[in-house]
Write a structure and sequence with these properties.
Blueprint: H1 8-41, H2 51-54, E1 95-98, E2 113-115, H3 118-149, H4 155-181
Antiparallel strand pairs: 1-2
Helix pairs in contact: 3-4
Amino acid sequence: MVLPARVLPTIMATIMATILAMTLAGCSSGDTSRANEKGASDKGQLFTVPKDQLAHIQIVTVQPASMPRILRLNGTVAYNSFLTTPVISQVSGPVSRIIVSPGQQVKKGQPMLYVSSPDYSQLRANYLKARDAHSLAHKNYLRSQDLYAHHAIAERDLQAAESAEIQAQADLTAAEQSLKILGIPRPDTLIEKSDIA
């Protein structure tokens, strides 16, 4: 017997559905008996507490109560950059003293803090040494001019004194420029001041 091609898929689907139904029927019958056994064991049972453990048991009546709502979150505190002005020091080093307090109005040029700067200390020392060296070289050059005019020294000694004065002047100018970069317009005032604002 030959079946038409359009009937074959219908017969195959019917056979598969029958096999599936038989498989499910076989599985469900065993699960029902297990559920019945489990239900019997889930029933509550009474028990007794030994006397030595009764002291550790506290009986409390259940009542409605309000619980405080606590919310704990992690976060960071940030400042409002629109309401602040950055203050930048021209020298590096730790702040040794703060003169103004937060929120206080300040004027242009008013010192706000003192910085203990090793960079500034070194530049100040270089300036003072260069100033003294130039002063001495200038005096030696003037003395050498006078001695040369009276034919007491050779021209070579005068030229050496002149070269020493020019070098001392260059060192002094370089030291002055280094301090001016830090915002000190008149380095000659460093004689009176011992620190910078």
